[in-house]
């Protein structure tokens, strides 16, 4: 958790950080409120207005949360109040896990209805457990409201080319060898589009979706340059291998309406 501090000296902030390090709390110092507003980042969850120091052991502070809840006047009270705040990282992780489950369920339904393919199993996986893939359909989303969180991110549905050709040939009622790469790309783009559309319908959430982007290349990986919470899952396709689903999730800043680039 990062907290913005206004009005304390850098030395005081360094001293307080040494006390808070074991609690997973980091302070960032700003000289004025205006500097804070100009430079604050998504990592900052609360604001502390410094009052004054009294000796080495007793740093006086006033604490104000983003929702305007009132102040405390001692370091111990600051510790207690900060510890009561929800762990936003854990909340985002839980939201990403819920989202990937929704994506897996919707993808399974779309494959069944559009290609007559029944997945053998669904599984949540961790980093380092991803199967190799040759083609990916990616869509961004934004303005997703979950509780107190405004979220944006992207979803990637990836698979080996063998599975992609199987899906698209079934959709077009053709033999695998009759399907060309352009038809495969169009078909996988449609699969990810229908999957996210189904997620939106089933969850009754109002959020914006980009058009699909399809990436082709042997053993590639979809990742994000930003600091996102990532969840992963797979669908097992009988006799063909595994499809990989990935969700990248992050907080959307106020006034930030553009789609997220994966």
Characterization of this structure:
The chain has 262 residues and is an alpha+beta fold. The protein folds into two domains: 2-85, Rossmann fold, CATH 3.40.50; 89-251, Chemotaxis protein chec, CATH 3.40.1550. The protein is 35% helix and 32% strand. It contains six helices and eleven strands. The strands form two sheets. Strands 5, 6, 7, 8, 9, 10 and 11 form a seven-stranded antiparallel β-sheet that branches. Helix 1 links the parallel strand 1 (2-6) and strand 2 (26-30).
Poorly predicted sequence stretches spanning 5 or more consecutive residues: 33-46, 50-75, 81-86
CATH architecture of the largest domain: 3-Layer(aba) Sandwich
The total of helices stands at: 6
Q: How many structural domains does the protein architecture include?
A: 2
Tell me the strand percentage band: 25-35%
Number of beta-strand segments: 11
Principal-axis shape equals elongated
Instruction: Give the terminus-to-terminus CA distance.
Output: 25 Å
- Largest β-sheet summary: 7 strands, antiparallel
Rg to the nearest angstrom? 23 Å
Can you say what the CATH homologous superfamily of the largest domain is?
CheC-like
Order of helices and strands: EHEHEEHHEEEHHEEEE
Short description:
The chain is built from 6 helices and 11 strands. It has helices at 10-20, 33-39, 75-84, 88-115, 161-172, 181-203, and strands at residues 2-6, 26-30, 44-54, 58-65, 121-125, 135-146, 149-159, 208-209, 213-216, 229-237, 241-251.
Q: Top keywords for this entry?
A:
262 residues; alpha+beta; Rossmann fold; Chemotaxis protein chec; 2 domains; seven-stranded antiparallel beta sheet; four-stranded mixed beta sheet; 6 helices; 11 strands; 35% helix; elongated
């Amino acid at each position: 958790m990062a907290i913005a501090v206004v009005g304390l000296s850098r030395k005081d902030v360094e001293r307080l950080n040494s006390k808070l390090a074991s609690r997973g709390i980091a302070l960032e110092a700003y000289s004025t409120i205006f500097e804070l507003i100009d430079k604050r980042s998504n990592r900052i969850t609360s604001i502390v207005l410094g009052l004054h120091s009294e000796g080495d052991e007793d740093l006086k502070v006033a604490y104000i949360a983003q929702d305007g809840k009132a102040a405390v006047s001692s370091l111990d009270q600051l510790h207690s109040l900060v510890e009561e705040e929800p762990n936003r990282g854990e909340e985002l992780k839980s939201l990403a896990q819920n989202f990937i489950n929704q994506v897996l369920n919707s993808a399974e339904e779309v494959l069944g209805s559009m290609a007559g393919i029944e997945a053998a199993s669904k599984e949540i996986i961790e980093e380092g457990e991803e199967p190799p893939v040759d083609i990916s359909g990616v869509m961004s989303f934004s303005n997703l409201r979950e509780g107190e969180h405004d979220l944006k991110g992207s979803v990637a549905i990836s698979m080996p080319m063998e599975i992609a050709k199987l899906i698209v040939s079934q959709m077009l009622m053709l033999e695998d060898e009759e399907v060309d790469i352009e038809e495969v790309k169009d078909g996988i783009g449609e699969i990810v589009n229908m999957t996210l559309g189904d997620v939106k319908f089933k969850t009754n959430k109002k959020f914006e979706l980009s058009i699909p982007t399809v990436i082709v290349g042997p053993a590639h990986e979809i990742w994000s340059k930003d600091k996102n919470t990532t969840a992963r899952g797979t669908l097992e396709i009988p006799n063909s291998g595994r499809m990989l689903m990935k969700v990248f999730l992050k907080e959307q800043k106020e006034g930030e309406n553009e789609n997220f680039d994966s």
